[in-house]
Design a protein that fits this description.
By secondary structure, the chain is of the alpha+beta class. It has a single domain, classed as 2-Layer Sandwich (GMP Synthetase, Chain A, domain 3), CATH 3.30.300. The protein is built from 4 helices and 3 strands; from the N terminus they run H-E-E-H-H-E-H. The protein has a 3-stranded mixed β-sheet. The longest helix is centred in the N-terminal third of the chain and has 23 residues. The chain is globular, with a radius of gyration of 14 Å. The relative contact order is 0.17.
């Protein structure tokens, strides 16, 4: 049962972070970044946020640095949107693999739910 809770929490965090980063974060250093996965630590105190990043290495590095800078804002917004006792610390990592192959399951799930964007 605990595995299902962690899965639900990580999916809720992923969807809220994707909305925050793509639509509400107004930092020009953040180019095209899609949240592909959120992995929670077993104690739910840390969350590794994997991002699909577009552009060259300098753009990817600038995007990660901008998100690290906006970490407090993102945690505050998550605290308002997600009902959790403690919002985990966020750690960002660029997904260096093929950006489309990592997103296919996520996109199919969103289409199934009726949220294609």
């Amino acid at each position: 049962m605990e595995g299902h809770r962690a899965e639900r929490v990580s999916e809720a965090l992923r969807s809220e972070l994707e909305e925050l980063i793509c639509y509400e974060l107004q930092d020009p250093r953040v180019r095209v970044a899609a949240v592909t996965e959120v992995q929670l630590a077993p104690d739910m105190k840390r969350a590794m946020v994997r991002l699909s990043l577009e552009g060259d290495t300098a753009d990817r590095t600038a995007t990660i640095e901008a998100l690290e800078h906006a970490k407090a804002f993102l945690r505050h917004q998550l605290a308002e949107r997600v009902e959790m006792f403690r919002i985990p610390d966020l750690y960002f990592e660029g997904d260096m693999g093929d950006s489309l192959s990592g997103r296919v399951p996520q996109l199919l799930k969103r289409i199934k739910k009726g949220r294609a964007k």
